Each structure stands twice: as structure tokens, then as C-alpha cells.
């Protein structure tokens, strides 16, 4: 493990969520020097930050693990957020990573030193250290987006974003307002509807819902999983599940093809047969195509939203007042608690950290049009900086763990050039990246995400910020970097 100067590579991993933990495991297994910087006091990333009632991972639990670390202890087919957090804590303990993580250490800047071929990583407390490689694993959905609603700060009760859940806010027996009907808002409806006196769900856009099964695993089943991991493999690698991933990515990219028509039919049938009250049905009927917004996977939303305590408000919010929400038509909803399930700024990535690469190029400047990365992983102008779950990375609606593992395989081959002393700096060429991005943008516009709806998948110019080709194309691209697309530099001096 040496570079040309016969010194071990030093890696900085930013973030101790799912992807950062993955990088740490891989680097530890190689016996390399690394530090994981985590801004919070605990691991877990989005699973640490989101603790709202009803939080469920919408990837089947056995498919939402590292491939090398299956988990026999899931309680049900779909796991709660707390269980997923528990899984990552279990992994960190098992791989002995706690000592490698610097908690409460927010990275505020990254500066490339071309002469040394190193990054200077500076923390909020002003300390700095030099690293050969930086792995940015800082997540996507972690900067809460608050709605711009007049008077929000005048609300006399407790008002908070779902990723900043307020445990002291009255829910039981209370009059609760909930703004937002993405995956988060929908899951909250299903979890609190029977506890509240009244739940007003402010819905700007209705959602298509894919019905999915949910069932518990018994202790006997968990014991069987512990004894025989092949039983877990039979679930996570089931032909039907893997087939679904391929069919779904095919559907996304072939919007009038048979797979998409089949998905639309399932969602439409579920909608048509589930909602009894005609007035509610019209409120919940989407006017855009299924899967244009991130599809909701639920086994109970349509049933739970019909609970008498729930009122779906589709009018326009005029303002928040101290005791509730005033609608544009003058109607008033008196509320004790106001929950903001209004999503995240999905375009921030490693920012607000300042990143300055070669020739003084900053990440803000490079991303002036939209966040982008070569095959979602590397960036021209920013040598030896690798992103896990970076911009344009999501493939379909499936496990980001699988995506990160494949991205790691790609990254690891590039780091190999540094390990072997074949390079001191590696980054994609501007030309290669521009050609890739041109192809990606053209393809992304034709995917279902670009078929005419708003969603966090769209960048500021309205282009879907996702992988626009098939799952297999992603797997193939990640299997081996095309080195002719890379500038591979020897050490200076
Ligand atoms: P999303 O999916 O971004 O959903 C945000 C919701 O908030 C969505 O329904 C928005 O309506 C609504 N919203 C946003 N701003 C406003 C204002 N000002 N007024 C009314 N409604 C508003 O975030 P989630 O947290 O649910 O899910 C994010 C991802 O986390 C999810 O896809 C999973 O991957 C995990 P809109 O649709 O824009 O009309």
C-alpha cells in the first residue's frame, strides 16, 4: 500500500452514514490509513436525523443491507427507521469502526494543494489535516427545506421540520397540521391518524401509491435466518425482487413501454379500488404520470387516510397565524402542532463546505448550472475527490447501499492507481465529463421523472438529477472506469 514516495495513502471520509461506513469498512479491510469526519455525535446519517413516527425504509429490509453483511434480525419485511439505525450501529460495532470516526467534526473546507497532490481538510474548530484522498459520503437528503409560508414564525404552538422531530409537540389528542405529501408526509399520516383529535393534511400534490406487502418475521424465522444465511439470500436475491429492480429501471427509461404501463395500471387499480368517498377520491387523484414523482410504496396509506380524524386540505395556504393555518379562501384550521414534511434541499451534497480544486476552481462555480459528477462519482478540476451517492447517482427507487457498493468498486480501481504509484492525482478530463453529461442530460429529460411534475429529483433547470439508463448500464459502468476518460498525473517534482 504505498505511493511513489513510499508512504501510505491517507484517506479522509466525510460522513458516517451508510456510505461513509461502507468506505470505512473497505479501507479498514485494506489496512489503509483513514479518518471518518462526522459532524454529529452519532453515526447513521439520514437514519439518525429522521425519527418521525411511521418512518419506514421503503426498500425491503433484507435488500437494504451491505451485500457482505446480511442481517437476520429484521422484525418485518419493511423495517422501521429505528431498526435501520440499529443495523448501522451493529455494523460499526462489528467492524470496530468507532475509534476511526471523529464525531462532532464538521468539515468546513477542502482545498487542493497541487504541489503536494493532497487535500487540506479543515474542520469547524479551525484544525486542518492533509490527505491524499477524500471520499465525500455526506448524503443527499439532509438539509431540511422549510416552506416559504407567510407567518410561519408566528405560530404559537410547536412547528418543526420532520427531520428535526420535536418529541414534546402535542400529537395525542391534539389538532395537528401536516404540510407535505412526499414519502415522509404519507408515512406520518399512517402513524398518527389514530392518535390525534384531528389531522389536517395540507396536500399541494396528490401521490400515486404502489401497493406493497408488509408482514412481520417471527422469532422462529429470525432464528432460521441466523442459522442459515442462505434463507436471507433467497429473499434479497429473489428473482422476483431483482426482476422488479430491472423492470422498474426499464420503465423509468422507456416511459411508454410495457413495464411502465404495467406500473401505471397497478397504481391506477389500487387508487380506483381503495378510496370510498368520491370527494376524497378526487382530492387524491394525481394529474401526472405514476413514478414521475418518487413513487410511494405503502401497504396502508389509502386505508389510513380515510380515517375520520384525517382531513385532506387541497386549498392554497394563505398564511400561518398564531393559532392555525389560514387558507386563501378564508377558511381557518385551528392547530396545536404544525409538522413540516416539506422535504430537503437535494442539491447541496457536501456543501456548505467550501471546496476548492485545481487552479482555484470552486465547487459552487463548477456546479453553477447543476450539481454533476462523472458517472456520479468523480469531478474534473477536483483530483482524488470521490463521491458516494453524489449528484445524478440514484438508479430507480432502490437501495442506495447497492448503488454505493458499486460506486465504491469504481472508486477503488481509481485509488489503485495512487496506491501503486502510477499516479499522484486522478480526475476525469473536462472533455470526457462534458460529453458524458451531455448524454446524461439528454437521456434524463426523456425519463419518467421528466414527464411533467415537480419533485426533488429535478435540478434547478428542471432536468432529472438521476441515472437515466438501465440498472445493467449502471452496473457495467461501475465495473471498470474507462481510464482514457481520466487525467492521470504523476507527482510534481
Ligand atoms: P419530498 O418528497 O420532497 O416531499 C415534499 C412535500 O412537501 C411535497 O408533497 C411538496 O409538494 C410539499 N411542499 C413543499 N413545499 C411546500 C409548500 N410551500 N406548501 C405546501 N407543500 C409543500 O420530501 P419527503 O421528505 O417526503 O421525501 C424525501 C425523500 O426522503 C423520499 O423520496 C425518500 O427518498 C426519502 P409538491 O409535491 O412539491 O407539490
- Tell me the strand order in the biggest sheet: 3-2-1-7-20-19
Q: What is the arithmetic mean of pLDDT?
A: 96
Q: β content, as a range?
A: 15-25%
- Tell me which ligands are bound: ligand NA7
- Give the radius of gyration: 23 Å
Tell me, what's the shape?
globular
Quick structural overview:
With 493 residues, this protein is of the alpha/beta class.
Describe the 3D structure.
The strands form 6 sheets. Strands 3-2-1-7-20-19 form a 6-stranded mixed sheet, with helices on one face. A hairpin with a 4-residue loop joins strand 5 and strand 6 (128-131). It is globular and about 70 Å long. Helix 7 (239-253) packs across helix 8 and helix 12 (400-419) runs parallel beside helix 14. It has 493 residues and is of the alpha/beta class. The two termini are 21 Å apart. It is built from 14 helices and 22 strands. The protein has helices at residues 18-29, 46-49, 81-94, 183-192, 219-227, 230-236, 239-253, 258-274, 278-283, 301-304, 363-366, 400-419, 430-445, 471-479; strands at residues 10-14, 33-37, 101-102, 107-113, 118-123, 128-131, 133-136, 158-161, 175-179, 198-202, 209-211, 296-298, 310-313, 317-321, 324-327, 332-334, 337-340, 354-356, 378-379, 382-387, 425-428, 486-489. Residues 141, 147-149, 179-185, 202, 204-205, 294, 341-343, 454, 456 line the site of ligand NA7.
Amino acid at each position: 500500500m504505498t505511493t511513489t514516495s513510499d508512504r501510505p495513502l491517507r484517506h479522509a471520509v466525510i460522513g458516517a452514514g451508510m456510505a461513509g461506513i461502507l468506505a470505512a469498512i473497505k479501507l479498514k479491510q485494506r489496512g489503509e490509513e483513514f479518518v471518518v469526519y462526522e459532524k454529529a455525535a452519532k453515526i447513521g446519517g439520514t437514519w439518525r436525523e429522521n425519527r418521525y413516527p411511521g418512518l419506514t425504509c421503503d426498500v425491503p429490509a433484507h435488500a437494504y443491507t451491505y451485500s457482505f453483511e446480511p442481517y437476520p434480525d429484521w422484525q418485518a419485511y419493511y423495517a422501521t427507521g429505528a431498526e435501520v439505525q440499529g443495523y448501522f450501529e451493529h455494523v460499526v460495532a462489528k467492524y470496530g469502526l468507532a475509534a476511526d470516526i471523529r464525531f462532532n467534526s464538521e468539515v468546513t473546507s477542502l482545498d487542493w494543494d497541487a504541489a503536494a497532490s493532497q487535500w487540506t481538510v479543515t474542520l469547524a474548530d479551525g484544525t486542518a489535516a492533509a490527505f491524499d484522498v477524500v471520499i465525500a459520503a455526506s448524503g443527499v437528503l439532509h438539509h431540511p427545506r422549510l416552506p416559504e409560508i407567510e407567518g410561519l414564525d408566528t405560530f404559537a404552538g410547536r412547528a418543526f421540520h420532520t427531520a428535526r422531530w420535536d418529541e414534546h409537540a402535542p400529537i395525542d389528542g391534539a389538532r395537528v397540521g401536516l404540510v407535505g405529501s412526499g414519502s415522509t408526509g404519507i408515512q406520518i399520516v399512517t402513524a398518527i391518524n389514530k392518535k390525534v383529535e384531528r389531522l389536517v393534511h395540507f396536500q399541494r400534490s396528490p401521490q400515486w401509491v404502489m401497493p406493497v406487502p408488509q408482514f412481520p418475521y417471527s422469532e422462529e424465522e429470525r432464528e432460521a435466518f441466523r442459522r442459515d444465511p442462505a434463507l436471507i439470500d433467497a429473499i434479497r436475491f429473489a428473482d422476483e425482487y431483482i426482476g422488479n429492480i430491472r423492470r422498474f429501471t426499464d420503465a423509468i427509461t422507456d416511459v411508454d413501454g410495457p413495464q411502465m404501463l404495467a406500473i401505471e395500471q397497478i397504481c391506477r387499480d389500487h387508487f380506483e379500488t381503495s378510496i370510498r368517498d368520491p370527494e376524497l377520491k378526487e382530492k387524491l387523484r394525481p394529474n401526472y404520470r405514476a413514478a414521475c414523482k418518487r413513487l410511494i410504496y405503502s401497504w396502508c396509506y389509502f386505508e389510513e387516510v380515510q380515517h375520520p380524524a384525517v382531513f385532506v386540505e387541497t386549498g392554497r395556504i394563505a398564511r400561518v397565524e398564531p393559532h392555525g393555518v389560514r387558507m386563501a379562501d378564508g377558511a381557518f384550521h385551528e392547530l396545536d402542532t404544525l409538522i413540516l414534511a416539506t422535504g430537503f434541499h437535494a442539491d447541496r451534497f457536501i456543501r456548505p463546505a467550501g471546496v476548492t480544486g485545481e487552479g482555484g476552481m470552486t465547487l459552487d462555480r463548477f456546479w453553477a448550472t447543476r450539481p454533476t459528477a462523472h458517472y456520479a462519482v468523480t469531478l474534473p478540476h477536483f483530483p482524488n475527490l470521490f463521491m458516494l451517492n453524489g449528484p445524478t447517482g440514484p438508479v430507480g427507487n432502490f437501495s442506495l447501499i447497492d448503488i454505493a457498493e458499486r460506486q465504491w468498486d469504481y472508486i477503488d480501481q481509481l485509488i489503485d492507481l495512487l496506491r501503486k504509484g502510477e499516479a499522484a492525482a486522478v480526475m476525469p478530463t473536462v472533455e470526457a465529463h462534458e460529453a458524458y453529461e451531455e448524454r446524461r442530460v439528454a437521456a434524463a429529460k426523456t425519463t419518467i421523472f421528466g414527464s411533467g411534475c415537480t419533485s426533488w429529483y429535478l435540478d434547478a433547470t428542471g432536468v432529472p438529477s438521476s441515472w437515466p439508463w438501465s440498472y445493467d448500464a449502471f452496473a457495467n459502468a461501475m465495473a471498470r472506469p474507462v481510464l482514457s476518460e481520466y487525467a492521470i498525473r504523476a507527482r510534481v517534482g
